[in-house]
Amino acid sequence: MAIDPKLLTELAERRARAKAGGGEDKLEARRKKGVMTARDRLDALFNQGTFVEWGMHARHDCHNFGMENKELACDGVISGVGTVDGRVVAAFSQDFTVSGGSLGAVHAQKIASLMEHALKIGCPVVGINDSGGARIQEGDHSLAGYSKVFYHNVLLSGVLPQIAIIAGPCAGGAAYSPALMDFIIMVKGSANMFICGPEVIQAVTGQKCTMGDIGSTHVHATVSGNIHFVADNDAHAMQIARKLLSYLPSNNVLDPPHHPVAQLDLTPDPGMNELVPATPKDPFNILHVIQRLVDDGDYLEVQRDWARNIVICFARIQGMVVGIIANQPAVKAGTLDIDASDKAARFIRFCNVFNIPIVNLVDVPGFLPGVQQERGGIIRHGAKMLFAYASATVPKVTVILRKAYGGAYIAMCNKEMGADYVYAWPTAEIAVMGAEGAVRILFRREIAAAADPKAKEAELVAEYRRKFCTPYEAAEKVMITDVIEPAETRAAVAAALRHSLTKRETRPPKKHGTIPL
Ligand code: HXC
By alpha-carbon position, which residue is closest to atom 7 of ligand 1? Predict the structure, then answer.
């Protein structure tokens, strides 16, 4: 008794209609424009042939306004589970060819169910956004749908890594699902993201602007800091997502994918001794240090073009995954300001919640002085860094390269803030403030009264620096683990990481702290 062939025909026809999206002509038009279809994107994300689709036969409520008998393939979103580099990942991809990828009740239900399943099996979620927003015909059902998606974003937060890709329009409240996820990758040219568009802004405020001014990839990468990675096109976005996933554990109870080496290589790297300029005030590029520190010079920089005075990136050091937070002396002298504090604090918290050890590279003259900074709340923003470091229980390794002054030194995670290892180069200056500033405050009268005030000041500065700005002063008080040659940094950090992989630190039970947001 074989199955009735009519049933198989019906199934095949339904599948074909679902896969046709908004029609072959619309799909082809996108490909011609160099924009991938929703299914092409999933194919590019997953290992070939591993994607298993769910909810292909989903259908919106036929009583919706103006939608009677209108068939919307997959209800505008393709969802399912597959593997990336052999590890399970859940993903959804909105199909703009189907009613503009707009989100209605069933569309939202598909996304929320996928997230619930991801939570049970403990795998990351990737959301590919390309949508005209709330499906207008479904009225408040689509608002309820968005709420359901946001609720699940928050439920998953800190349990599973969540990555959003903005591949098309992302308008109004719809931008909040990506904003609630951990990382946003945005495609140059075809994507935009905003809460109130140019027409609304002009109508309400009279201010004229373009989409480029408020919602472009460039603006979000350099000014608003809303996104983490810029992709040149769809294929590049999927590549970035895959690379990012290669550093992340599948969930918060697993370690990240370390590739431990059988035996650490502890040989020095003399090239590291060449990197820091002899004069303390000369800028240098911290990326050169990072490149020498990490395996194969390979790292993934996050928010590269925003708050460039601090660098955050993922990398491996002798096979161990790390999150690196480094002052960038080449930009604003590496000072900490509002944006740098926000950028670092969020990254520290991400690393902590996903068991990724943290490496800090310190060359910081202080918080950025300025009226705007004070009025903008640098106290509150800087406090986020203090809070994030002090509450992080993952291994924390700090290397002080040059300046480590005042509150900014603490904000970059010194021993008393919970660093497990603090190494200082002989060039390190650990002090309440720079020698010039300290001498001016302490010896103003003596300098003024001297026969040659300039010479007197220089003499006092040299003396202060000798006495108070050396790493040995801190080493004597056991505020640092050791003073090392720059050449020994890679070996010291690798050993510190290797020895701390079993670190366990418990804190008093609580719902959560009250981080100054
Ligand atoms: C229903 C929609 C739609 C929507 C687009 N479409 N957006 N259908 N609900 N929100 C449909 C169009 O009717 C059209 O259908 C098809 O998708 C393609 O749209 P076009 O306008 O032809 O495409 P394009 O010219 O590329 O413009 C894209 C767009 C524009 C800029 C996104 O469609 C647009 O402005 N849409 C409305 C955006 C919006 O205001 N959304 C609501 C935001 S409020 P046919 O059948 O002709 O192919 C919101 C609240 C969320 O999202 C709150 C969450 C808390």
Answer: 132
**Among residues 148, 26, 157, 50, which one has the least CA distance to residue 99?**
26
* Atom 54, ligand 1: residue with shortest CA distance: 173
List the domain range (segments joined by +) for residue 489: 270-432+470-500
Please state the atom number of ligand 1 nearest to the C-alpha of residue 100: 17
Q: Is the CB of 136 under 6 A from ligand 1?
A: yes
Q: Looking at the structure, do residues 289 and 175 belong to the same domain, yes or no?
A: no
Same domain (yes/no): 33, 171:
yes
Q: Are 426 and 483 in contact (CB under 8 A)?
A: yes
Q: Which of 174, 408, 431, 474 is an active site residue?
A: 408
From ligand 1's centre to the CA of 373, what distance in Å?
39
> Looking at the chain, how many residues does it have?
517
Residue 150: the pLDDT is: 98
Bridge-partner residues for 403, per DSSP? 429
DSSP three-state, residue 474: helix
Q: Is 172 a catalytic residue?
A: yes
Residue 62: pLDDT band by 50, 70, 90 thresholds?
A: low
Q: 392 pairs with which residues across the strands? A: none
Sheet strands (E) in 202-271: 229-231
Structure tokens at 36: 């991938």
